[in-house]
Amino acid sequence: MRRLRLWLALNQFPLTLALILLFVGIIATLLICMMLWALQSRGPAEPIPGVAKAFGMRERDEGSYRVMLVETADGTVALPAPVRRDCRVGDRVVLRRTQTRVGAMYGLASCARGTPLNRPDPKRPPRVG
Question: Phi first, then psi: what are they for 93, rounded to 5°?
């Protein structure tokens, strides 16, 4: 401890600034540990079937992103919609629900292309009459 004080005095580094930096570092470490503890998974992810009900956009500082609303047996869930998947309104989707200490987190596991509820099947000819 004496060497640290000597080094701080010789380099004209204010002791109060060193204590403030130490305090901020301890607080940041505690916050990160608390966040990791709260978001820790409490078991394996379970598949939840649902139906895509609507799509929209949300804004963030980085820009906008696509959001989909999925109707499940538990209720309606809003989650980011990947652009690479061809999900449309009425498609059957499977969500991946992971329980955490503070609630559930949802992610899109799959989107059943070709098995829509309100889209015509492109492989069948249209009905006439």
Answer: -130, 160
